């Protein structure tokens, strides 16, 4: 998976008010309640049958208790029985139930891992299937991930504030009493939010499907260069997970020049990614990954500064023409996906931006590539060019 520089902005702009939290502690409490109100069950497909319950398709096992579906859980089961979910949703409950039953009977004998929420408020507990995966699936709970992120917050990592005036989500949060005025601590972790701006919870998101966490550390920034060539880079962390099988656990670190109030990240570089699939021994791999991740985050900035300085001193040529020729040779040799026109444009950006240092250095050109990538209309093209910038800078390391 290539790092998408608009990932944080996408979550900021699309998450509804009830999925936004001020910090990981607040979200972890909700995720823990979700986990405690759910249960896992391995059920043999041969022992399951589709029934109509309360005007909707449901599954019933040997306990003869019907379990309805969440929207995602229904789609996941349909995928397992190779039935088009959207088509089944368009049918009557009775017809959809018949087709689900037909699909279950055609399944090879296997166990399904059903993850269900349990509503115990009624006399008879009500079950709702949140996820239907294979027996090989090993769940990593959102509560675990948010608990780990909460420990990072205890060490000073913070979610940057979200700037809200004039947007629909801001009105929804204000109606819930979930806004406040920015203070100095908020300004310290944002490139655009000012004292007194109206802000709301952002950077920590939790739904019934996934969690997404964006944290920065105000006291672990990296400064390279001097004078007009000085660059101040923040250290950021992104963690995402789905406990219902909608994606792997991802842990990402990066350097960047700043975060806007809408969580657009400026000048992202030095991206490192760790991922864990929810298949077999995921919990053991999670434990090892957390240790390695914390070790990386707790490391000093000296090595990062040394790497950046090497890239800033790595000159591509004595002239712009020589530099472009060397870039083209590097692109071919290192399989860097950037066109001649993009590399030439990046040299132009480097010339116009004193803080990137020597415009003919590999560091300056890599910064130029990340800058021009933001003008590309499609996310896939932006991430491809961002990846090219990272591969180019890595040549000097």
Written account of the structure:
The protein is an alpha+beta fold and 397 residues long. It has three domains: 7-34 and 140-299, no CATH class; 38-119, no CATH class; 308-394, no CATH class. It has helices spanning 7-14, 24-36, 71-80, 85-89, 93-106, 142-154, 168-175, 184-187, 282-298, 302-312, 320-334, 340-352, 362-373, 379-394, and strands spanning 20-21, 38-44, 49-53, 56-60, 66-69, 111-119, 126-134, 162-163, 180-181, 198-200, 204-206, 210-216, 222-224, 231-242, 249-256, 258-259, 265-266, 269-276. Strands 1, 11, 12, 13, 14, 15 and 18 form a seven-stranded antiparallel sheet that branches. Helix 11 crosses helix 12, helix 12 crosses helix 13 and helix 13 packs antiparallel against helix 14 (379-394). The protein is elongated and about 75 Å long. The mean pLDDT is 89.
């Amino acid at each position: 998976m290539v790092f998408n520089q608009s990932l944080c902005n996408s979550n900021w702009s699309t998450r509804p008010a009830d999925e936004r939290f001020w910090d990981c502690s607040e979200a972890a409490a909700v995720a823990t309640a979700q986990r405690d109100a759910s249960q896992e069950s391995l059920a043999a497909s041969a022992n399951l049958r589709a029934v109509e319950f309360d005007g909707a398709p449901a599954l019933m096992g040997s306990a003869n208790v019907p379990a309805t579906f969440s929207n995602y859980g229904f789609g996941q089961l349909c995928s397992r029985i190779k039935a088009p979910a959207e088509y089944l949703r368009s049918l009557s409950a009775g017809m959809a139930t018949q087709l689900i039953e037909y699909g279950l009977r055609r399944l090879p004998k296997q166990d399904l891992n059903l993850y269900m929420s349990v509503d115990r408020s009624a006399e008879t507990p009500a079950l709702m299937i949140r996820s239907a995966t294979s027996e090989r699936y090993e769940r990593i709970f959102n509560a675990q991930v948010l608990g780990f992120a909460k420990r990072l917050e205890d060490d000073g990592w913070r979610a940057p504030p979200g700037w809200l005036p004039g947007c629909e989500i801001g009105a929804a949060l204000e109606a819930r009493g979930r806004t406040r005025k920015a203070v100095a601590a908020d300004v310290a972790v944002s490139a655009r939010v000012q004292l007194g701006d109206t802000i709301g919870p952002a950077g920590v998101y939790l739904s019934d499907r996934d969690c997404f966490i964006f944290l920065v550390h105000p006291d672990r920034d990296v400064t390279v260069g001097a004078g007009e060539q000085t660059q101040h880079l923040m250290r950021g962390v992104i963690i995402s997970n789905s406990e219902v099988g909608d994606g792997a656990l991802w842990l990402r670190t990066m350097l960047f020049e700043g975060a806007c109030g809408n969580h657009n990240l400026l000048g992202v570089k030095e991206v490192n990614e760790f991922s864990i699939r929810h298949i077999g021994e995921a919990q053991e791999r999670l434990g090892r990954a957390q240790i390695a991740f914390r070790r990386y985050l707790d490391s000093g900035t000296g090595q990062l500064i040394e790497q950046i300085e090497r890239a800033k001193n790595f000159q591509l040529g004595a002239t712009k023409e020589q530099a472009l020729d060397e870039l083209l040779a590097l692109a071919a040799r290192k399989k860097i996906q950037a066109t001649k026109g993009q590399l030439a444009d990046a040299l132009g950006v480097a010339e116009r931006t004193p803080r990137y240092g020597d415009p003919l250095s590999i560091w300056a050109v890599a910064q130029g590539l990340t800058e021009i990538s933001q003008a590309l209309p499609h996310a896939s093209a932006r991430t491809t060019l961002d990846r090219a910038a990272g591969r180019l800078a890595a040549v000097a390391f």
